[in-house]
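Sample intake sheet
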Amino acid sequence: MDRPFGVTLLASFFFIQSVINVVILFGFYAGGAPLYATLYYVVTSVAGFAIAYGLWRGYRWGRIGMMVLSGWEILIGFLELFITLDIEPASPVEALTKIFVYAIVIYFLTRPEISDYFRR
């Protein structure tokens, strides 16, 4: 079964996002950022590379990992609406955008034709 275009797009997006997180991580490390912020970017970078690989190859754990990460980001988005997080300061518009985008990702990954791709 050929990889659906949306899965290719999602895997590519997460690979690029992970590269950007690594660049941010080096900036944080060089700038003497707090440990929790640095650890956040280490974890998100490693998870992003792993999930991108899992999605690209069609592994079930990549789909599940993407759904878990999306749920986590939705939770962070809701928290950002009400309190300011030092890890990722965001405006309410950015928080709502994050919630909306990751909800679409979860919806996309639960579609029958996408689920079938990850069953191989």
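Comment: The chain has a mean pLDDT of 88. Helices lie at 5-31, 35-57, 60-82, 92-109, 112-117.
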